[in-house]
Specification:
single chain, Rossmann fold, Helicase, Ruva Protein, domain 3, 2 domains, two-stranded antiparallel sheet, 10 helices, 35% helix, 19% strand
C-alpha cells in the first residue's frame, strides 16, 4: 500500500538515487558504528546505511511507517517524537571501540521542527561523534553564517560554540516526493573536542537577549540585561548583535560566570 505523505509530520520523501548515494558517501558509515537515523520515512537512506553498518537504530513518529520499518531485521525502531528521545541512553548502548559512548546521528529533519531538534541534540553533543542532517538550505545558511551578515543570529552563535559545521551538499526540490517549496542541503556537524566551559542556560539567555532586538544597538537589549546583573566588565554595547563574533559572546558568558562565583 502506497504511503501518502502527511503534511502534519512535514513529510517529504527523498527519491533521487544519485543524491542518496552522494549523502551516504558524505556520511561514510563503517561496519559496527552506533548510528541513529531521525525520520527514516520510506527507508530510502536507511537501506544503504544499514547495508554498510550491519545495524541501525531509527526514530519514526508515523505509526504506519514504524510498522513497515519493524519488518527489517537489522533495524531497531523507536516509535516516538524525536524531542522525547534520550540520546544519551542510545549512546550508552552503543559503546565505541575505545570504550567511550559515541553516537553518529543522521536524518532528513522535518523542516517545521528542525531548530528544536538541533537544540535538543545540543545537550548531548558530548556523546556524539558527528551529525549529518538534511535541512532547509536557509537554515543551514544561518547555522554556518559569519558575523556581520544577515544570516548570523542566535542559531549561528549557539551551534558554532559547540560544533564545527559545513554545508556539504545541495539538494534541489525535485529530489523529493512531494517536492518542498524550498531548497535543501546536507550539513555536517562535528562536536568540538574542547568547547568553552560555559553555563549553557546563562549563555543561551545572553544570546537570546542580544538578538531580541537585532536591528537596534545592544545597549537597548543586552546592555540593560548586563546592568541588571551588575556587570562592570568590558563589553562594547554600541554595536548590533550581528557584529559580535561567537568568541566574544563566549568570553562575556565566562566573565559573567566568574562574577557570579565571586558573589
Amino acid at each position: 500500500m502506497k504511503h501518502i505523505p502527511r503534511k502534519r509530520f512535514g513529510q517529504h520523501f527523498l527519491t533521487d538515487r544519485a543524491v542518496i548515494e552522494a549523502i551516504v558517501r558524505a556520511i561514510d558509515p563503517q561496519p559496527g558504528q552506533a548510528m541513529v537515523e531521525i525520520g527514516p520515512g520510506l527507508a530510502a537512506m536507511t537501506q544503504p546505511l544499514v547495508e554498510r553498518l550491519g545495524h541501525l537504530t531509527v526514530i519514526e513518529l508515523d505509526r504506519d511507517l514504524a510498522v513497515q520499518l519493524r519488518a527489517h531485521p537489522q533495524l531497531t525502531v523507536i516509535e516516538s517524537d524525536v524531542l522525547k528521545v534520550d540520546f544519551r541512553i542510545l549512546a550508552a548502548a552503543g559503546i565505541a571501540a575505545e570504550g567511550a559512548p559515541q553516537l553518529r546521528v543522521v536524518g532528513n529533519l522535518p523542516y517545521n521542527i528542525s531548530t528544536p531538534i538541533l537544540f535538543h541534540l545540543l545537550d548531548v553533543a558530548d556523546v556524539v561523534e558527528d551529525q549529518h542532517f538534511m535541512l532547509q538550505k536557509e537554515v543551514i545558511d544561518r547555522m554556518v553564517a559569519r558575523p556581520s551578515t544577515s544570516d548570523y543570529g542566535r542559531l549561528s552563535v549557539m551551534l558554532q560554540w559547540r560544533y564545527a559545521m559545513e554545508n556539504v551538499l545541495f539538494v534541489p526540490p525535485q529530489s523529493f516526493d512531494p517536492p518542498p517549496r524550498v531548497d535543501s542541503a546536507i550539513v555536517r556537524m562535528v562536536p568540538r573536542a574542547e568547547p568553552a566551559n560555559v553555563d549553557v542556560a546563562l549563555f543561551s539567555e545572553l544570546v537570546r537577549v542580544a538578538f531580541s532586538q537585532r536591528r537596534k544597538l545592544l545597549r537597548h537589549s543586552l546592555g540593560r540585561w548586563l546592568e541588571g546583573r551588575q556587570f562592570a566588565g568590558q563589553f562594547d554595547v554600541q554595536r548590533r548583535a550581528e557584529e559580535v563574533p561567537v568568541e566574544q559572546f563566549i568570553a562575556l558568558a565566562l566573565d559573567l560566570q566568574r562574577l557570579q562565583a565571586i558573589k
